[in-house]
Amino acid sequence: MRLLKLALLGSSLVLAMSATACRDDGGGSGDDTPLPDAPPVGGNVTIMQVQDDAMPVGTPVTLKGVIVTAIDAYGNRTGDIFVEDPAGGPFSGIKVFGPPLDQVAALAVGDIVDITNAEKDEFALTSDLSGRKVTEIKGAAGGMMTITKKGTGTVPAPVAVDAKAIAAMPKAMREAEWEKWEGVLVTVTGARQLAATRTFGSNPGPDSNEFRITGIARVQSGLAELPADAGFGVCYERITGVVDYFFNDIVLPRATTDVVGGGTGCNALATSVVSVQTGTNVELANLANVVVTGRDDLGTNKGIWVADGLAGAENNGVFVFTGAMLDVAWTVGTRLNVQGAVEEFDLPAMAGGTPMGNTVTEISSPTIAVAAAATAPPTPATAVPVTTLNDIGAAGEPWEGVLVQVQLMKVTALQSFGKIELTSNAGAKLIMDDEAFVLSPPAVNTCYATVTGLMHVAVFDDLRTINPRSAADVVVGTGCN
Fold first, then answer.
1. Single pTM value for the model
2. Domain ends where: 152, 167, 193?
3. Which has more confidence, 31 or 36?
4. 65 with 114: CB under 8 angstroms?
5. What digits encode the pLDDT tens for the residues 66-88?
6. Alpha-carbon span 217 to 256, nearest angstrom
7. Is residue 98 one of the residues assigned to a domain?
8. CA nearest 151: which of 64, 89, 232, 76?
């Protein structure tokens, strides 16, 4: 049940969402991919060696002949710089945290510098439960580093990064790919804007604006003002900037002109619920005139189920996660226009971050508008075998989010957290859950003539559940074994 999982992590997730890029000094183990060369021991090293996990946090670092690629002189939080090894490439860039401001004021992008009296650090807030950190250098032993300009050079050419290819990767591979470019100047192609530009943080300023893009990353105004919001679904020709990490993988453009629209190489939008559920590498949905089949307005994490048409059918259902109070106008049967990002929701294991199992396809960060009032109620699919509905694998997947009805189901066990085990006359079991409606616990051996509900995934338990929407969806009868 989604409510349970999010409740377990609720306080940390709220803190993560409200955090800003202004932060205390940090430390801890790294998350970079080890490189094949010998473990660096500190002193005069390359950025690539600093990015290697073989170098412990706190190791003294001297960087010679590195190129300044970005200077943070924008907004409320300023002073940091990014530098890169002249040869560029993976793991060749790094953030310089807290350098002397008088020395930063004398620098320009493209300057060749030496950095001394520094040490390696790995930073993340404790509320970031992902285990990921950003690699930085800071003043050694809490003191001030020294940045000495040695000349003027050429900024390494931005590395081409394909957002579509990253989006197609499993989560661990996707994070590892972004990690390669942490601190590096890149040009992202194939990126759509997945949500409107928004502010973030508890004390937002001009450097606290962002929008989400293909590849599960954010474009933020940490170094420069973003262009006027181009809106949901726009395809960008290119977005050039330095890659960073703070709760999310981030691209930081260095100028408004680094964000260029008019692209044609992005994934197509999903324009139907069926295409959301069956499309390949779908990250964005633009749904018109879909029908509300159910509402989840319980607890603190809410949403609705929608379908292309009134009749329950394979792949004709998806959950729209609003995370907030539902509009009273979104009644069952109402037609809506829905725009939002398509995600596969899962909850990491409580220790170690391994996914729990099957995911829930959902539309998140949605924009919803009423298209038409209800004219008829949605009708459930009625001939789907229970052994298909309860299959956590491929057989049950087409029925996720779909309104279905099962017949002659007997209550055989009451489980924790509102779950009720039902058993058919053929011995097939299906779990009834309270995601959309809280049912008073029935007596064991109660016979239901019919149970109607939305199929969903209890990701914490890795099982499929049927979720009645009201007491009318659970009809007591006779005929059960």
1. 0.71
2. 152
3. 31
4. yes
5. 999 999 999 998 999 999 999 99
6. 18
7. yes
8. 64
